[in-house]
Design brief:
The structure holds two protein chains of two kinds. By secondary structure, chain A is of the alpha/beta class. Chain A is built from five helices and seven strands; from the N terminus they run H-E-E-E-H-E-H-E-H-E-E-H. In chain A, strands 5-4-3-6-7 form a five-stranded mixed beta sheet, with helices on one face. Chain A has a two-stranded antiparallel ribbon with strand order 1-2. The two termini of chain B are about 50 Å apart.
Chain lengths: ~170, ~220
Amino acid sequence: MWKWLIPLSVLPVVVLLAYGFRTNPREIPSPLIGRAAAPFALRSFDGAPVSLESLKGRVVVLNFWASWCYPACYEEAPVLERSWRAFRDRDVAVVGVAIQDKEESARKFIRDFSFSFPNAPDPGGKVSIDYGVYGVPETFFIDRAGRIRRKHAGALTDELFRTEVEKLLRES
Amino acid sequence: MRRVPVVRRFAVALIFVCGGLEMAPALPQLFVSGDLEMTPALPQLFVSGDLEMAPALPRLRISRVVPPALTRFRVDRAEAAETAPAAPAGAVDEETVHAVALQLRCVVCQNLSVADSPSEMANQMRGIIRERLAAGETPEQVVEYFMDKYGEWILLSPRGRGFNLLVWAAPVVAVLVGLAIVAILLRRWTRPRPRPAAAAIDPALRERVRRELESRP
C-alpha cells in the first residue's frame, strides 16, 4: 500500500496539468450570451448620439476597438467597413466603440480606414465593462430582440461576419 | 507488511503537507508572495490566463498591450468632478474602493487584482467601483455587478460553493493526511522495540574471549 502512495498522490496533479494544458487560458466563456444586451447611449466622434435603444429591431454588430491595438484591430478594420457596406441596406447596424483611446489617435484610425458606420469613445470604460470586455478587438452580435447571441474575441473575418449576421437576419 | 524505507514514507508525508499548504486559498500571502500567486484557486491556475505556455493560439494575435497613460480621459474625469453638482461621491471611502478592487481580477493582467494593477483598464474599473459605491451600492453589490458581466472568473478567490468547495477542502485534507502520516511515523520511531533475545553463546567462544582479554597487557 505504501509503495503505491507516491505514484497515486502524483496522479491527480498530472491529470489536472494534462487538462490544463489542453484548455485555452484566453477563452473564458462570457456569461452574457443569450442575455439582453446592456443599453448604452454614447456620443459618436461626429457628435451624433448612438444608442442601442435607437437600433432596436435591427441586427447590431457592436465592435470594441482601439487605435493602440496593433495588429489585430488594424487587420479587422477593413473587414468591418467592407461588411458594413455589404449589409447596410439589410437592417443591420454596425457600431464601433473605441476603448481607452486618445481622441486624436482614434479619429485618425477612423479616417485611415474610412469608417462610415458610427464610432464613439467610451469614457470611463462603462460600456466596455458592461459588456465584459477583456481586450480588443471584441465583437458582439446582437439579435433583433436585443439579445447578445455571440461574442467573438480577436479579429473578425468576412466569413464570420457574414455567417453570423445572415443567421440573425433569417430569424426575424 | 513489507518494510518500506522510512525516508520514502517521510517523503509522502512531506508531499501532502507541502502540497496542502501550497494549495491553501486561505494562506496565499503567507507562503507565496506577489505575482507568483499560484494559490487562490488551483482550477483557475490551469483554466485561466496564468500559464502563458498553454496553447493560446486563436487569440495570440489580439493586442493586449496596455495603452499608454491616457491623459484625455483623466482630464475628462477631472473636469467632470469639478462640474459635478457637489456629488455624494465625496462620501465614498477610498478604503472601501480598495477593498472591493482587491477582490477583483484585473482582466488585462496576469494574476493582479484591480487594486494592484497600473493598467488603464484597472483604472477604469476602479472608477466604476467608486461610482457605484457613490450611487449607494454595497460592496457586495458592486462585486455582484462585475461577476454578472465577467462571470465568477473575475473573483480572485473562488466562492466556496459546489465544485469550488474542492479547492477549499483539498488543502485541508492534504495537510491532515500529511500530519497523520507524520504522527504514525513518530509513534513508530519512539516506541521501544522488543530486543531479540541474545542467542546463546558457545561456551568455547566465551572461554576464548575471556582468555584473550586477560592476556592483554
